[in-house]
Amino acid sequence: MFGYTLRRLSLACLTAAVAVTVLFVIIHLVPGDPVSIMLGPRATPEMKAALTAQMGLDRPLPVQLLTFFANLLHGDLGIDVFSGRSVTDIVLEQVPYTLELILASILWSATLGIALGCYSAVRRNTLGDRITAVLSVGCIAAPSFVVALYSLLGFAVALRWFPAIGAGEPGDWGDQLNHLVLPSFAIGLSWVGYVARLARASMLEVLGEPHIRTARAFGLPERWITFRYALRIAILPTVTVIGVGVSFLLSAAVFTEIVFARPGLGKLVIDSITTRNYPIVMGAVLISTLVFVLATALSDIVNALLDPRVKSSVS
Amino acid sequence: MTYKTRSELRVILSHLLRDPLGLAGLAIVAVVAFGALTADWITPYDPIALNIMDRLQGPSAAHWIGTDQLGRDTMSRVIMGGRVALEVALPTIGGALLIGLVLGMIAGFGPRWLDNLIVLLLDTVRSFPTVMFALAVVALVGPSLQTVIVVIMVTSIPTYGRVVRTQTLALKSNEFILAERSMGASTPRILAVHMLPNVMGPLAVLASMDIPTVIALEAGLSFLGMGVKPPTPSWGAILNDGYTLVRNTPWLVIAGGIPLIVTTLEFTFLGESLRDVVDPKLRKQR
Amino acid sequence: MSTREALLEIRDLSVDYATAQGALRALREVSFTVPKERIVGIVGESGCGKSTLIAAIIRLLAPNAAIRSGTILFQGEDLLGNTEKRMRELRGTAISMVFQDPMQAHNPVLTVGRQMVDIQYRTGISGAAKRRRAAAMLAEVGIPDPERHLDQYPHEFSGGMRQRIAIAMALMARPGLLIADEPTTALDATLEVQIIHKLKALQTEYDCSILFISHNLGVIAKLCDEVVVMYAGEVVERGSVRSVFHQSIHPYTRSLLDCDPGRIKERTGKLPTIPGEIPNLVSVPPGCIFVERCPDRIACCQCERPGWHEAGDGHGGACHLLEGP
Amino acid sequence: MAALLEVEDLRVRFSVRSGSAGILRLGAQRWVDAVAGASLTVSEGETLAVVGESGSGKTTLARAIAGLYHAQEGSIRFQGQELRGLAEGTFRPLRRHIAMMFQDPVGSLSPRLTVKTLITEPYKIHNFKDRDLDEEAIRLLDMVGLSADFASRYPYQLSGGQARRVGVARALAVDPKLLLADEPTAGLDVSVQGELLNLLGKLQDRLGIGILIITHNLNVVRHVADRMAIMYLGRFVEEGPTGAVFAAPHHPYTLALLAANPEPDPDAQLNRIELVGEPPSPLDRPHGCEFHPRCPFAREQCATQTPTRHRPTADRHYRCHWPQVWRR
After folding, report:
1. Where are chain C's structural domains?
2. In chain D, which residues have their Cβ closer than 8 Å to the Cβ of B194?
3. Which of D15, D23, D147, D174 is most worth mutating to test chain B (most B CB atoms within 10 A of its CB)?
4. Nearest to A254 among B127, B132, B140 (CB)
5. Is residue B243 part of a domain?
6. Which of A32, A255, A296 sits opposite B141 (nearest CB)?
7. Which of D57, D133, D67, D127 lies closest to D95 in space, CA to CA?
């Protein structure tokens, strides 16, 4: 198990390194010049030259990349020209807000989704299953920013059940939780449908496997068969998908943070684009990429923990 | 026993027509496609013509769902928005599918080192959170239809590439492919005649399920002002107008949101229904 | 059949499957008896209804299956009239099963020990005692070092070992009836012999009856006391193994035995076969089910279903040729 | 009879990696010899049966001969021409002479093609431009005893026996000289497998092809094979004319296989010989005679010394320290 974890993490490091490189190269290949963007249309050539030199953009690409990596290893993403603070600090300040939003969304949507999926699989082809199926597909299709918008207008503006904007008072857990409800609802809704469909499919597949017939032939209680014998296997693909789905949730979080004016990576990026603060945009994209790489590695490790077949293929 | 051999397309169509949700999906998708194709003729007004005199009007006989803050006819903008949605979705998915197909097949059928390389590349690109990555690019080159298409395409390639690779790998050790090789079939022939038809099914389903995602992404980016450039009408842009003016003009939020939700919903239903036909496991039971 | 007391008695069992084409009559009026402490083999080719039959006995039929008629008496108790709860009480205690594919018969994410402890959930003994019994049972079926093996997962065992584990689990509660569904088909010949010998030894030791399903005539001949021959959902012949194999009375049994290349010692370029295919069971033909492929058919076979004819000593068959003049 | 296929000391090695294959391969790499020095010959018009249990390497052997797996050592000569190490481009024209049939009757047919397309594919692959494909399809179907209306069916509409016949038709379409048949009766009922064996025999008489049959079914071997070779852990432990091997096996493993093949006769007497344990993994080969841990007759010498090949007569050989002539 330890060997597997180590291997998976080193693979994650490799992926992250390549991802950063590719990102770096793509950004440099894209037409568009960060310096002009940061300085705006009225910049003089001298100003541009000065900033280019200050950001190290006048050096050849490989050198820039190496410097970038060397700095990255120290956690240094450069200095924000506007506030004079470290970009890393500015970005990391926002990470907890986004992370807590994503975690809250995963938590409620995966729980509900798996429960619905199990229900559907056990009661397959009943009215309940069909209703769940249509609802799930409906949830999948609902674009998260529209859900965010409508729930803001409905539950916050019209009904005033929940606060409309912000992340709540720092230190006040209840208030923060209250501020999490609508955004995590908006992000998680389509995920509920997705997880439910997936859990139903894998549950049905497992319930059709011969070993379940064996368990039934030994008269094991149906509840054991569903939860101890089938769900433990059926949950494996769901765990993988949740790991990969963090990318999807990060995207949804951007929209939601804007709609609810919540602090977080998404809001930081949008604000920085408006203020032409390019290094911050890059820093935020980078950090969110790393978050995602880590999340997939984590889900693979959890998978290996739950599935003895993976473990033994390693040891 | 006699066997009627029906063409693949007819099997799929007859299934869709029997499934109420699939039928509804097909119908709405047809309506959106029709609207997109004929938008130039059926829009009652020019969707980008300003008419400050008529700004922020409520629904009326002249403007069925009112006008926006610049006096543009919302109905015309919604119809045109459908065209924009498809203009983004179709080339994006078409391109991603094609590139993914090629990369996936090379990875699955080619030498081990190439497979490793392609997988690493796909995994890397997959690890860019789509919207974040899109924002970074838009910040550099500015919002436009082309930017949105290219960015979403690039981030969608890994999904297709991985599915094709997995399928190809599974098929590669299948006895019928070994049989073809033992007969001396060339690699291009095996790929085109024997692999492709078996890979296309799941891929088509994936693509049809992906259309709503891309439409929603485009709308989302346009909602943030990072998608298509104004004054091009996009459902996301209409929603944004409505969001800022929600107190005076609630119909704008509804006019932008409803077609978006209905379209993504129906595309999803269509995709689900398609999957039921294509999925070999379900097919065997019929 | 024999005069021993019946453990399992199946009378006129008919099972249908609902299909898109209509009701598929998978079993039609199947009757036979499993006497106490005997091994009864069921032999037949694919599509003969073997799997449906055992699924009906333990009442684990597919959702689209329906029992049209018949009774299944187990120790005098009508299984078809039982509640699901009562059936669950019987499964694994009075009736247990060994399945065909040992590679997939066990839960892949639970240890063997856990699964063996779980199936003892009805006994009131402590967890440690359950574990000890599981280990003892593994030793019984010839698995060395059972204590250690309890903590292993199914994928860590070979196919032959897993089938031994399956037998250990099945016999743990000392059932009256063990149903074995092609338990050796997936195994190599040398392992098949080991398992057959083990089963025979355990059957004597545990005094249980075995209902042994196989398509392999040789295995049936070696293991069983009595045999039931099935074709396309019907019992065509049954009796003691010796009389059925030596004096077959049904043309299908004879053809099947003729086809077995193991019987033909001389090399021949022309092996016997049974031409034709199994009839479509959605529209069962009115006459004898075997008529289309029968080498000995007579006029009345086409239109009239043959009745059951006893040939003495529990040996009987369903064929018009058995009718007296 | 001229030798059609000569295989000498063939070795096929696979790499086994602990852990999932990925770009980071930190797991230890090990090699396993699936085929560990196998030699055989097949002459024109002759049938050789390779008999072995699962994991014995018999399928790997057939696939290596067909050029589907890479063989590391040894030689494969077809009509005197070396096949091992041949580039795919040079091998391709030869492939029309070597046909292969795979285990799964339905699964070895490309699922989205009709029977007609499937059986006429060899003509397209080998550029037989002058043939009328419709006519050829009917001829081939007739040859294997299927009616012409099968031409428009898809593989999933065929029964196992019918799919097998389609496989035979396709294999024989371009008149090969050698047929490699991997478990040709797998998945077929006894009442149907005779049909296929009769068909193969008939076609062999007519076309004079050499056949290599891979099987675990000894009953089948007796009726189709001129010679048989017994494979254990990637090597042949005994080889000889079928009748002679059946009548008097020399190697204990052969005897065990024969004894493990019960006849459908409740009164049949068998030389009961039961093997202990299970076949070892080729990753972990026993020392000395590789069969000794399971051999009921093993003596001390067997655990240390590898037996050499003995040739009691010109057409038989076996590897055993203590061969006994078992009379059956």
Report:
1. 6-94+177-265+273-322, 104-172
2. 110
3. D23
4. B132
5. yes
6. A32
7. D67
3-state DSSP assignment of residue A242: helix
Residues of D within 8 A of A315 (CB-CB) are 18
- Is residue C2 packed enough to be buried (19+ CB in 10 Å), middle (13-18) or exposed (0-12)? middle
The verdict on a CB contact (< 8 Å) between A11 and D24 is yes
What are A110-167's pLDDT values in tens digits? 999 999 999 999 998 889 998 998 888 888 888 888 888 888 888 887 788 888 777 7
Q: Kindly report the CA angle at B278 between A231 and B283, in degrees rounded to 5?
A: 75
Min distance B188 CA to chain A CA atoms (Å): 31
The 10 Å Cβ neighbour count of residue A173 is 9
Interface contact D260, partner C, CB < 8 A: yes
In the prediction, which pLDDT does B6 show? 54
D160 within domain boundaries: yes
Q: Which of B15, B11, B13, B7 is nearest to B30 (CA)?
A: B13
pLDDT surpasses 90 at C269: no
CATH topology of domain C6-94+177-265+273-322: Rossmann fold (3.40.50)
In a domain, B39, yes or no: yes
Please report which confidence band the pLDDT of residue D29 belongs to, taking 50, 70 and 90 as the band edges. low
> In the predicted model, is pLDDT for residue D325 greater than 70?
no
Distance of residue A312 Cα from the nearest chain C Cα, in angstroms: 8
The answer to whether the Cβ–Cβ distance between B21 and A157 falls below 8 Å is no
* pTM for this entry: 0.86
Task: State the pLDDT at residue C82.
Answer: 93
A94 touches chain B (CB under 8 A): no
Could you read off the pLDDT of D98-115 as tens digits, one per residue? 999 999 999 999 988 999
- What CATH number does residue B57 fall under? 1.10.3720.10
Q: Is C146 left (phi over 0), alpha (psi -120 to 50) or beta?
A: alpha
Residue B286 pLDDT > 70 = no
Subunits that touch chain D (at least 3 Cβ pairs < 8 angstroms)?
Answer: A, B, C
DSSP state letters, D245-272: HHHS--SHHHHHHHHTS--S-TT-----
Q: Of the candidates A9, C142, C55, B44, which has an alpha carbon nearest to the alpha carbon of residue D276?
A: C142
B3 assigned to some structural domain = no
pLDDT tens for each residue of C94-123? 999 999 888 889 999 999 999 999 999 998
Contacts of B285 in chain D (CB under 8 A): none
How large is the ipTM? 0.83
- Residue D111 resides in a domain: yes
Whether residue A313 lies within 8 A of chain D, CB to CB, comes out as yes
A110 and A164 in contact (C-beta within 8 Å)? Answer: no
Strand partners of residue C78: C73
Determine the structural domain holding residue B145 and report its residue range. Answer: 8-285
Residue type, A192: V
Cβ–Cβ contact D264 with C under 8 A:
yes
| Mean pLDDT for all residues in chain A | 85
Contact A149/B135, CB-based, under 8 Å? no
